[in-house]
Amino acid sequence: MSSDSDPAAFIRANTAVAAPPLLPEIRLHLAGEVTPLWQATEASLARSGLPPPFWAFAWAGGQALARYLLDHRDTVAGKAVLDFGAGSGVVAIAAALAGAARVAAAEIDPFAAAAIAANAALNGVSVAVVAADPLAGPVPAAAVVAAADVCYEQPMAGRVEAWLRRCAAAGRLVLLADPGRAYAPRDGLVECARYLVPTSRELEDREARDTAVWRVLPGAATPASARATPRRPRAGRGRGSCRGA
Predict the structure, then answer these.
(1) Quick one: which of 223, 224, 14, 214 has its CA closest to 114?
(2) pLDDT (tens digit, 9 = 90+) per residue, 5-51?
(3) Omega cis (within 30) before 218
(4) What does each C-alpha distance from 39 to 43, 52, 87 come to in angstroms?
(5) What is the third-level CATH fold of 59-238?
(6) Euclidean distance between the first and final Cα of the chain, in Å?
(7) Which residues are CB-neighbours of 118 under 8 A, at least 6 positions away?
(8) 21-45 burial by CB neighbour count: b if 16+ within 10 A, else e?
(9) 52 and 41 Cβ atoms separated by less than 8 Å
(10) Three state DSSP letters for 115-142
């Protein structure tokens, strides 16, 4: 059976169960090496136009945000949470383990959706997968909106930031984790935590990335011209305001 017809079978055949470095309490289906999996999906990508297998790797932002939620459980305990651009689902899984009342993971890639379901089952939690793109829709009902590693290219980063700002303006607690990507927001952020996340040289240009977890505040999105010049975001005041109302 081809990977096109059974993404779950493809995931089982091309990954191994492992714990990300920053999250020993969470197990995920992860690729041990980057190149073989990327090559294995090339034929499928060419046929169906699916995105690369970002779901198979524990990226620095996802690890940092998941660690933050596990270490600050009151951020999500008893609340509904939406993990945007969920990838492997690691942030959604952490939210569920931290006591969230309901957790949804927004992912339009069917392989990622299958990975989220498999990873949630591995960790004994319930995560609903939302296949629709929420960026063009109304602000979600979830009290907490989480996003990690979503600022790696334009124009998507601008669309995501504008949507996150809308969510914040509607009263949602919006958390964004970023390891210093070029197109991350520059202002209107409150730093909640910072982690040095071990990474692979196959994925990144260094062995560890300094990764921040930010609360996104309401306001205008960063202009595209400002995003073109990488610089460290300016942290706002009020570290204690990272847990919402």
Answers:
(1) 14
(2) 788 988 888 888 999 999 999 999 998 766 566 666 666 655 655 56
(3) no
(4) 8, 10, 19
(5) Rossmann fold (3.40.50)
(6) 49
(7) 8, 11, 12, 29
(8) ebbeebebbbbeeeeebeeebeebe
(9) yes
(10) HHHHHHHHCCCCCEEECCCHHHCCCCCC
Q: Are 4 and 44 in contact (CB under 8 A)?
A: yes
Q: How many angstroms separate the Cα of 92 from the Cα of each of 13, 33, 84, 106, 186?
A: 23, 24, 9, 10, 25
| CA pair distance 87, 59, nearest whole angstrom | 9
For the segment 49-54, the average pLDDT, to the nearest whole number, is 68
Tokens of 51: 């995105």
Residue showing tokens 């669309």? 159
CA distances from 183 to 45, 115, 155 (A): 26, 27, 9
Give the DSSP H/E element, type plus range, for residue 168.
Answer: helix 156-169
Q: Tokens 């960026």 appear where?
A: 135
Of 190, 183, 164, 178, nearest to 231 by C-alpha is 183
CA distance 12 to 40: 13
**Using an 8 Å Cβ cutoff, are 92 and 119 in contact?**
no
| Interval 173-184: pLDDT, tens | 999 999 988 889
Is the pTM here over 0.85, yes or no? Answer: yes
